[in-house]
## 1
Amino acid sequence: MDSSVNKIDVKRETAELLEKLGVEASSYTSGDLASFTPVTGEQIASVKTHSAADAEKIIDKADEAFRQWRLVPAPKRGELVRLFGEELRQYKNELGRLVSIEAGKIPSEGLGEVQEMIDICDFAVGLSRQLYGLTIATERPGHRMMETWHPLGVVGVISAFNFPVAVWSWNAALALVCGNAVVWKPSEKTPLTALACDAIFARALKRFGDAPEGLSQLLIGDRAIGEVLVDSPKVPLVSATGSTRMGREVGPRLAKRFARSILELGGNNAGIVCPSADLDMALRAIAFGAMGTAGQRCTTLRRLFVHESVYDALVPRLKKAYTSVSVGSPLETSALVGPLIDKPAFDNMQKALKEAAANGGIITGGERIDTGHADAYYMKPALVEMPKQVSPVTEETFAPILYVMKYSDFDEALRDHNAVGAGLSSSIFTLNLQEAERFLGPDGSDCGIANVNIGTSGAEIGGAFGGEKETGGGRESGSDAWKAYMRRATNTINYSKALPLAQGVSFDIE
Ligand code: NAD
């Protein structure tokens, strides 16, 4: 039994943190949504949910706020996000700790998630002075052609349990500087961190002074309330993060009403370890990528192709790391791997391991650790040596399972690497330039993220984040992802005294 789990009164600490963060007790003490912590499995709050009628009102209010906010100059909008970043710096420890309690992330990852929020605020503040379009050469004399970018409207954000605060901030920081209002439906598994973000944002709003009411609001509830957001004609963009199953439901509904979507869905990320790889570096990157966050990152490393010439040098060391890694309370700094979110996650892990064994997999780890809490699911991460890539390797199981396969031919490894539905993140470990460039090239990795000599997880906010195929094709965060949050107009201005038509068309009326 891991005694670290029992050291802390989680329920009391949660209430203290929420009070410090400025969340009204009435919003989490007598509601109808039971909120649990994966640390002990116990219920820590009862959060008030919204009805469909509430949701309509919230969206209406956001729409009104948008109509005012879009007229505020973008650098001034950036000032609000700058203040939000300051508040996050001040409350980083409390919010990070709450993330650990509600999502089960180890302390450095809980804090890291808040750091990511701060980073995106900084990025968005800079962006607020750079929302520029092109000036384009025109074929007509005395004309000028350019593009302008305008605010879009209410941006709906639907988020998953495993990044309970960062994903919202990626969307909200960009949406706000772009002149939009935001309505956020967090995961029903992590409503408390959402309430905390709302309270922190309210402090920034107060300091800012004259922002319209309703600029950023919460919609608490399960998928049914998310559907109201998805179906509302007043929401021109929904950014939805979660499983591919969710994306299959949400995507067509948005397409039906010609709304925009940013879909950030499941991943089944892989790495290739080549003969020339720096194995020490690869070992560390693989260990973090596969076991970190208890395998509950969208970018978690789930499949590993190891060249036969280095298999025996790498895999036994990896197995050792798997058997010795510390699993325990995410509220203590001693643990590297925290708990699974809940029982369905545990059941899914068991099912996948059973199927892998039936298909020839040899399993190291994967056992449940007894903490004395019937509803807390602490697992030894599992490394499964598979003879080939068959089910369940081809599907994402949101748990710490790494399938390891041996390869002899690079082309074959690349083919298997791409032969799954998801297309989020990927890595190659090699010191061979030809292999590295091939992996990054047009017939290499088919993922939205392709790395050389680093793992699949832990992306920085400066790059565009997202994946291809069943990962949904959306991009958020850095680079030019902001363009999805604005509408583009092409403007042509005639400052001549004639009216030449494009393509030399003549249309002379009397
Ligand atoms: P989930 O799909 O169960 O839920 C995600 C969110 O979608 C929740 O807020 C849920 O209430 C909502 N939802 C579900 N069905 C809906 C519907 N029909 N209409 C509207 N809203 C709906 O996912 P989860 O278990 O919370 O998170 C884990 C999954 O998320 C994994 O598959 C993981 O890979 C993925 N994920 C992807 C990214 C990414 O950026 N690609 C990031 C984090 C997590």
Note: DSSP finds 15 helices and 23 strands in the chain.
## 2
Amino acid sequence: MTLELTKEEQAMLDGEYGRATQKAMEILTALGEIYGAKKMLPVTSVQISGVSYANLGEPGLKFLNSLATDGKVRVLTTLNPAGMDLEEWEKLGISEDFAKNQLRVIAAFQKMGVVTTATCTPYLVGNIPHYGEHIAWAESSAVAFANSVIGARTNREGGPSALAAALTGRTPAYGYHLDQNRKPQVIIQFEGKLENVRDFGALGKAIAEVAKGKIVYIKGVQNATIEELKGFSASIATYGGVGIYHIERITPEWKEYALPDETITLTQKDVSRHINEMSDEIDDVDFVTIGCPHASLREIEIIAELLKEKKVTKEMWITTSRPVKEIADQMGYTKIIENAGAKIAADTCAVVAPIKGRFKGMVTNSAKACYYARGRNNFKVQIKPLKEVIREAIQ
Ligand code: F3S
């Protein structure tokens, strides 16, 4: 065995800290050995995915309940979106049966001490690591954001390995935790102008196509808002399967590593081509959604401004975290949005909610939402800038 454990880690593996901790350490040591880790690293933050009952089913819930018998998390741990708004599930048309089972899942996490805020943007609601910190996150968009925009260090965990990290406070030292696996492998020279979240999402898709899984160092992006980086992280992770990128003068590790020799140039035309690629012919738009990844407070404020004294003519969901929704309630944004007939859905999203087949044509500003709405829910999709998405909703 090449993996060396400290006394405490060995005691966890030997069952001295209880059955759940032992099971968790078994998962982590097995992973560490597969990937050739030499030691475990302490983690300070965990994000768990696979929360929707639609994905877990009874076998997943049974596994969770077995860990919840004596398992307690050792570090700050939050959850990915669930299959429904945990409080107002009825307004989204979720069945009582599904709701009952989803709440059983949440209860099991709660028993283990997990903060049951269900969001893919934990970094917007208090689960925010700092530069260089080792963490264990399982949500591809949040992983790319944490590694690239924050400069924290995490692999793309799965639900079980993230939960195991939470129960032990450890993760094996391999992958993106190590300097050598964070270095850029190809330069992307971008020639063009990015104006909004849609454009950043399209660039992420364009990069994924040409970089073929390599870590990119992007030149030519002048500036980016948190919302644009959130959308870009989701897109590059979804279409490219990578968990880290660097942008010159924007992301914190841009000066850390030597630059690679290979350069690929992408232009505005490439961005436009990918926008077109994510825009199907739709006769009848019946679903409009914003908030993939979960909407920030600033996005909800803008949506409220655009929907003021208007009425939506289609089913419209703005998906976000519960803490952000609560601030939106306090600021009066929720009231404006609901008066317009749109819905703010907390704790969930249009991908993990069980809505397959319920709609035909969806409009969004998110490249990631396009990917899953097409692939998982069989919807036709169109990607537009936020203002045009709202125009579509009210026309
Ligand atoms: Fe988040 Fe759901 Fe999109 S989990 S990143 S809103 S697919």
Note: The longest strand covers residues 287-295.
